[in-house]
User: Fold this.
Amino acid sequence: MKRRSLIKKIGLTTGALSLAPIALAAKASEQKYVGSSFKIAHITDVHIRPEENAPERFKKCIAEIKKHKIDFILNGGDTIYAADYDTIDRQRMLDQWELWDDARKDLANYEVYSCLGNHDMWWAAPNKSDAMYGKDYVVKRLGIPKRYYSFDKNGWHFIILDSNNANAGSLDEEQRQWLENDLKMLEKATPIVIMSHYPILGVSTIIDGGNHKDTDYITKLFYQHNDKKIHCFSGHVHLLDTATYNDVHYYCNGAVSGFWWEKGNEHSAHKYWYHQTPPGYAILELKDDGSLTNTYHTY
Assistant:
């Protein structure tokens, strides 16, 4: 990743950061939906690794998340630092997943629904028949049913997508057909949360790239379901933004790891930040009328 090779040795602001939560709220529709109100956390781009004291710093983040009395967690991918480079051997990949397993113990009382990040898959295995090659192994390590899936909670429908396909940041044809059918089965006014690793539609991607390549297809599909209340969440770019298009709300939240746990570079507004976004996590308050509030917290 080119962003990691940027100059690191510069004078950056030091000391503890105190940042007020950034609230990004939107009402999906005036139509009343009778459901339940509840609260979840959205974490993304943890990039867990042994360096930079990342495991202990992530555990500090987990402790802060727990204070919000959440119901469960959405994990937006890039759970480990990197397994996707040609130079990554088996042991390096396993070491990172073991750190995730250890941190996951601090979340033992919570369901964690994850999606695949582009850095999570080990492509350098000796061959494709290796048990640790590619997506199937990541699905197993994350404890999720498939590389894409959906589930229901408290009257809300959740869709977890796999953005990591031939054209990075896109859905494959199999997944497209599944998504179309999944949306068709839902009743009118159903509130929906969709999580992908890459932003489906973002503002910050204008600055740094990383948007879904098939945004045109996905937004047209969502428009066919404008009788429902759709909210999309993503990560990948380590930047914070919100956008609304055709009454669909898109939230890209910053990375738990900020500048990959490192101090930053000349573009970092403060120490550990990626551009103007601090390390952090989001708390989602899902309302009984199908609207929600996304509030970003640093730690």
In short: The CA atoms of residues 43 and 291 lie 20 Å apart. The chain has one domain: 35-298.
